[in-house]
Each structure stands twice: as C-alpha cells, then as structure tokens.
Amino acid sequence: MKTKTIWITCLGLMLSAFSFAAPKIILKLDDLSVKNGVCGFAPTMDYLVQKQLKAGLGIIADRNDRTALKTLKPYLRATNLKGEKLIEIWHHGLDHSKTEFKDSTYEDQKLHFELADKQIRKLLGIQMHTFGTPYNASDSVTNKVISGNPNYKVFMLASQKPVLPNGILYLDNRVNMENGTGNPEFSFFMANYTKLKGKYTDYMVLQGHPNMWSPERIEQFKKIADFLISEGCEFVLPFEYYQSQKNI
Fold it and tell me: d(Cα 149, Cα 26) in Å, to the nearest integer?
C-alpha cells in the first residue's frame, strides 16, 4: 500500500509539471529613435544585454538619423551564450501618426510602409520582418499593404484582429505591463498575468515604451522580467517565434 501511495504521489507531481508550460515572452518595445547619437532606449537595452533577454524594438523611421547605426550596432550584434541575437528591429511606421495606418488610403499607407522599410535598410543595413502600427491602429487597408511585401511575416497587435494570408503570423496575446503608456508597474502586471496565464499558455506579448521610462520605471520593468525568469519563461523575438511555428 505504501509503494502504491508513493507511486500515485510521484505521478501527480509529474502531471502537475506537464500541465504548466511557461509561456514564451515577446517584448514589444515601441518608438525606438536615435538622433545625434542620443537614444532613450539605451538604459533598457543595456539591461537586456546584461540579462541576456531577447526583445523586439519598434523603430520609427523618420525619428532616426545617420548616427543610428553607430549607436545601435553594439546592441544589434549582441548575442546570448547560444549565439542567438538578442535584439530584433521591427517596423513601427514612418512618422508614427495616429492615422498612418488607419482611415487613410491604400496609396498613403503603402507609401509610408515602403518608405520606412527602405529608410531602415539604408540606415541600419537590415531587412525587417515584423510590423506593428503606431497606437496599434490599423484597418483592412493595412492588411493589404503588409500582405503585399513578402519580407514581412509577423504583425503584432491591432485595434481589430486582422484577416491576413496564411503566410503572416498575427500575434495578439497581450498582457499589459504598463499602467498607462510609459508606466510599467509590477503589481499591475501581476494582476494581468495571473488573470491571463491560464488563457495565454503558448506566448504573451508585453508592450512597453522605454523612451518614457525613468530609472524608477526601469526598476519596475526589471521586477517584471525577474518574475518571468523565475517562472521559467523564455524570452523570444517576434520573427524567431514565427520561425518556430513554421518550423523554419
């Protein structure tokens, strides 16, 4: 009887372990800009590299100049112990206006989309594969625009869930960590995480705005990151997550 009890207990522990698989974490950090060598993301990026945490940085094309490459190069080259890159730069619009990708014509949206893509290729020498609109505002025209560029495989967050071709992955499992734009708050995040962890078991998207983070707010972000690490969560890049889902 004692042996049977031990076996049942061990089986229960094994089932509990398998029942909880920590979700992958996609950090969606918006509004990257570099002008005259000044980058408000620097303190956050330094922390990410130090902790070996992956993050996607949404760049606004028109808010960057020729100093962007020199400033961002150390971060773009940063890798973890496996040799995997830590930073992905993603398309966050040309000028970040509220109507850039919502309630505007196909011609206007396509022009902004393609100009931003071209400018970042010229400034940083990289091809972006992930897209997220300013203010997460988009419409059916936006779906057509992103679908027309074969380099783009991921669309993150939107005011309404888009209908996209099978070749594009839409990521929308959002768990808020900012209690108001630019205000990461550990207790606020924990309430959202606790509420949604049973629903979003595969991945979570955490949106933030590091340009607005004071040292105190960065400390709140660090608490959130440390908690997720303690949960066994793996931080992944948006395009990397797409590749894992498509077995690329």
Answer: 23
pLDDT in tens, 179-206: 999 999 999 999 999 999 999 999 999 9
The encoded tokens of residue 180 equal: 């108001």
> Six-digit token pair at 117?
């893509």
Q: Both tokens of residue 32?
A: 């990257």
133/58 Cα distance (integer angstroms):
9
If phi > 0 it is left, if psi is from -120 to 50 it is alpha, else beta; for residue 15 that is alpha
pTM of the predicted model as reported, rounded to 2 decimal places: 0.91
Q: Count CB neighbours of 216 within 10 A.
A: 8
Q: CA 87 to CA 49: how far, in whole Å?
A: 9
Q: What tokens were used for 201?
A: 């078991």
For residue 9, give the H/E element and its range: helix 2-19
Q: Is 50 exposed, middle or buried (0-12, 13-18, 19+ CB in 10 A)?
A: exposed
Asked if pLDDT for residue 9 goes beyond 60, the answer is no
| Secondary structure letter of residue 200 according to DSSP | -
CB-based contact 200:172 (threshold 8 Å): no
> Is residue 6 classed exposed, middle or buried when 0-12, 13-18 and 19+ CB atoms within 10 A define those classes?
exposed
Q: Which two tokens stand for residue 119?
A: 């400018």
More confident residue, 203 or 160: 203
